[in-house]
Design goal:
The protein is an alpha/beta fold and 452 residues long. Helices cover 31% and strands 21% of the residues. The protein is built from 14 helices and 19 strands.
Length: 452
Amino acid sequence: MEKRQTVYAVSLGCSKNRVDTELMLGRLRAEGISVTASPQGADFALINTCGFLETAVEEAIDTILETAQLKRTGSLKRLVVAGCFVQRYGYKLLKEIPEVDGWIGTGEVHRVAEVMCENTTRTATPFLINRPVHLPDHTAPRVQTTPFYTAYLRIAEGCAHRCSYCLIPRLRGPFRSRTPDSLLKETEMLARQGVKELNLIAQDTGMYGTDLHPPVCLADLMETLTAVKGIRWLRILYLHPASLSDRLLDVIGSEPSITPYLDLPFQHVNTDILRAMGRDPERASPFKTIERLKNRFPDIGIRTTLMVGFPGETNAMFQELCDFVSWAELDHLGVFTFSPEKGTRAAHLNSRIIPASAQERASTLMALQADISRKRNQSRVGQTLPVLVEGASPETDLLLCGRTATMAPDVDGQVLINEGQGIVGEIMPVFITEAHEYDLIGGIVEENEMGL
């Protein structure tokens, strides 16, 4: 019997990229190619890249060159590179990295089988790149690469915002929503496969449905998806603060399966900086947004991202950012330094901040947040919380770990479980006994008195 060909995949960057990787693997599996977790012995390699920042570009190049070595030392026959890195740099990559056997932009990932399975006797390296307009639906084959109990549901693709520092509209194309019916069918399929936690993603989940005819909204979609049996947690990620409607808050408050968690990328709080970023501080004041949320949901978990070192950011403006972080007392915070990406409006702005100063500001904010996170976590000691058990802790194989409803996968902290019998993939009650900067420690409660 002829040996079945195998493909090894690397997915760099965000969770939206991960979904693209899963869809490409689905197309390859439909062609009879098996997915392997190890590059050793693989016939094909697929690298799905990020190209949002220069640091991501450097990671992509390093990963490509490292994987290409397997063509000389291993069984690797073909290396295909896809994603934002390809979309950003285009045909110049053919000359710069000749080790690659095929290139695919973000708008052509559904054609991965054409490139991976193409006749290798061709002299020209295949390069598929166009304006991204393709939008996969529930009928597209998909290989889930997350643990069986959790998955990402991409509800829309592309971006309609024009932030001055961002390349996403160019890399991902115009904003385009999937239909509610398609999303419902995919959610039902994922539930049948054992998924209990579904994380909704898009470049801006809050814009969902505004481009459909007739238009719908994220709140409508959430109400539809909460009816799917088996999905215990629905989490909203990447929600532009300006999209936070009262109706959405009503649905979050009334549907138990929607986690009390919001991911709101504010980027900054100073009004002059926000305007220079191309964001509207009047429509989505960070201070008013946090106040509105905490008045309504005192225990809600909130994540945000902030950018420091944007051109023109003075010491006083940075102090505003520090004051906001101290006042808001958010659960989770990501801090990035400004990167002048070629092709963005912000790359041409004057009054640049010295990179070392920007990094120092980032470190200051993260140190401030560490104290806040510790305080927030300590308030949970003595509580019994529902925890999604994930398996052995990456920090120590001796303990299980999991996440609460206010911890998103990959980006937030974890709960270390030091007592009780945990079942991977189950949501179980855990009594919290200790708290650290980002993690909690506790034991599983034998008597389930929480109705979990």
